[in-house]
């Protein structure tokens, strides 16, 4: 690298001579990850003096505008945040960045009883025995490219699952395990004409029939598989076997194509093998052809299940493979529907695929690389790109710890050879950003107001809290010509991705409907027991099983005592008769490791073995009333 033209991190420090000691330290800390990683990147790109000035200027303007939402005021946007290894989804208010709620999904939650109540166990289904999850990509269902406020879908990479969250109550209502694949990573929804399908990538390569008979040496039958899930039924509609593996995915705005990035076209099993070739690819799926192939029965089944699996490997009519620089990561469709932006990761570039050229590609009229209409060089480690409503794109640079703001039209012109500067600004973020997202930016309604950048490291941005640090979710004002960093938001493990949805798109219930599907099976059980949940307080004895039905009205349970025998399987069903907004009750049985939440007008139940002889108090553990402490009762467990 030419030292005079391309300031390295060291030189940046020298240039910072006049600055305070603290900001110099900050600059040197920035280099910590960047420097070593440069060597593995495909090639460093020159950072011009103009770019440096722009970035320094932007830094000086930090905190110039404010995301203040004053006490009593409401946020303009709902943010849906993945909780990463915590397995949950969080709701934030934007722009305040206040955390409003947590939605347990793939995790077990002590507060709400998710994974403990019978209702949640039914929803958790065949994956109920898993205590863990790794959620990455939350995306809301759409109508004609606009959010419809109905569902948020999210993947669990760890256990190959997909979950659906109902936005009227903000609870998970369905979780399925995707067969034939391992590590469901990229997940998106069909945008147009509506979210008929949720699409998701099986990242890890496994034998087609993964029955324990394959070897670690012969990897010839190893495949990655693309899954297309019926969003309403929450069943896999069909799958497509591809060449290479699958990382991230997105859909077009025409209802015709899905596309996924592949970082392991080598089908390597070790890191060295995975990064050995200079190019990987994007695979594009032709939805109509896939549906026709399923109809025509041109599929196979694997692993003893009935899911139709199509062959979309190279040469197939169902797919096309577009070579891009090695190890691409994120894929983001521009809100006008013109481009798939492919983020280079090991290449300093983003490749733009013109979606209107895909018809010709599938008709074999053009070559795959002819669909690429821009490949701007942005900086080191581009991972994800977001869009505003003014034709600009915002790309996270993981290694540079920056956001590159660039103009899409100018990047296309530059690729044609015109002398234009597509780079608008580089802004330092803190540090190592992964995903970023603009308000409404993955829909036709991109509004160019806010950009959130999910930084993987926070280092020195918060009070030190031991070796494990929070992430740093930064809020950037993008409404003006310059990006302005306005807020640092610490977050626990690990928001991979987020979306920001205008509040006008979401209508939530204040209290539960008594006929809600969430507890319909519990209502049916009560009916079989001859119990009217809204009025009865009864103990039903059924051999070794005891079903205890009680109501709750602040500050009392309908039953203040009941008796069981040691070893009984006890099911406690609580129906919250309160109709007042926000009066949630809890039910905790001491010494049995169980507790749950019961929202206003909801029924919740849980089952446990009464294995602790003696008097066991149960109590309300959600604060509900001045006499909340007194809201309790006794279970006598008679010794056997
Ligand atoms: Cu969307 Cu983190 Cu799963 Cu990129 S991934 S960073
Ligand atoms: Cu009921 Cu606290």
Automatic annotation (TrEMBL):
Cofactor, free-text remark? Binds 2 calcium ions per subunit. Binds 6 Cu cations per subunit. Each subunit contains 2 copper centers; Cu(A) (binuclear) and Cu(Z) (tetranuclear). Cu(Z) is thought to be the site of nitrous oxide reduction.
Keyword annotations: Calcium, Copper, Membrane, Metal-binding, Oxidoreductase, Periplasm, Signal, Transmembrane, Transmembrane helix
Which residues are involved in binding Ca(2+) 1? 456, 471
Q: Where in the cell is it found?
A: Periplasm
Residue ranges occupied by any Cytochrome oxidase subunit II copper A binding domain in the UniProt entry = 541-640
Q: What is its EC number?
A: 1.7.2.4
Q: How does it assemble?
A: Homodimer.
User: Mind telling me how this protein is modified after translation?
Assistant: Predicted to be exported by the Tat system. The position of the signal peptide cleavage has not been experimentally proven.
Q: What is this protein called?
A: Nitrous-oxide reductase
Q: Which amino acid positions bind Cu cation A1, per UniProt?
A: 585, 620, 624, 631
Q: Does the keyword Ligase apply?
A: no
Q: Which Gene3D superfamilies match?
A: Cupredoxins - blue copper proteins, YVTN repeat-like/Quinoprotein amine dehydrogenase
**Organism taxonomic ancestry:** Bacteria, Pseudomonadati, Pseudomonadota, Gammaproteobacteria, Oceanospirillales
